[in-house]
């Protein structure tokens, strides 16, 4: 999942993710770093979040119609 997310985010610019807990988050290319697998770092202005890609069960891409 780590490499897939890395590739998709680079390609699409933003993606939504859902963790196995049901929590959902959005990743943006400008503030997301793929560090040493499986850790993903998101710098959200005044907060830094660390996500474990092993806990992500699915992702999807926003589509505007």
Structure description:
This protein is an alpha+beta fold. The protein has a single domain (2-60), classed as SH3 type barrels (Roll). It is 17% helix and 48% strand. It is built from one helix and six strands, in the order H-E-E-E-E-E-E. It has one helix at residues 2-12, and strands at 14-19, 24-28, 32-34, 39-44, 47-52, 56-60. The strands form two sheets. The protein has a three-stranded antiparallel β-sheet with strand order 2-1-6. A three-stranded antiparallel β-sheet has the order 3-4-5, with no helix packed on it. A hairpin with a 2-residue loop joins strand 4 (39-44) and strand 5 (47-52). It is globular, with a radius of gyration of 11 Å. The N and C termini lie far apart (27 Å). The mean pLDDT is 93.
């Amino acid at each position: 999942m780590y490499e897939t997310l890395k590739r998709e985010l680079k390609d699409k610019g933003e993606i939504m993710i859902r963790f196995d807990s049901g929590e959902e988050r959005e990743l943006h290319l400008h503030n997301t770093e793929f560090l040493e697998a499986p850790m993903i770092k998101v710098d959200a202005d005044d907060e830094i979040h660390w996500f474990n890609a092993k806990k992500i069960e699915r992702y999807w891409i926003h589509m505007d119609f």
